């Protein structure tokens, strides 16, 4: 799987009391919110972890088959690419 990074046209933060991640696509003025597993994946991605590490961590943390996690991450990344909040590394 390719590696990804956050797009430059976003601002984001975590709201710690309700454990929610807010993302603003500055170009489109669209807000996106994540919690649960999607929040965990986002935070790992934001800290420059590679997809392999993210899949291992999510698989272990949630006791889910790694191949299923890879598929879910792939789908999640495709959604993020469509919304313009991540991009593939060169």
From TrEMBL:
InterPro entries per UniProt: PQQD
A Pfam family name for this chain? PqqD
- The protein's name: PqqD family protein
Source organism of the structure: Clostridium simiarum
Q: Output the lineage of the source organism.
A: Bacteria, Bacillati, Bacillota, Clostridia, Eubacteriales
């Amino acid at each position: 799987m390719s590696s990804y990074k956050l797009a430059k046209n976003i601002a984001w933060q975590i709201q710690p009391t309700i454990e929610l991640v807010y993302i603003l696509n500055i170009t489109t003025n669209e807000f996106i919110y994540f919690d649960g597993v999607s929040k965990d994946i986002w935070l790992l991605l934001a800290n420059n972890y590679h997809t392999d590490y993210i899949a291992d961590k999510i698989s272990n943390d949630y006791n889910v088959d790694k191949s299923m996690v890879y598929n879910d991450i792939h789908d999640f990344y495709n959604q993020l690419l469509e919304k313009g909040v991540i991009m593939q590394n060169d």
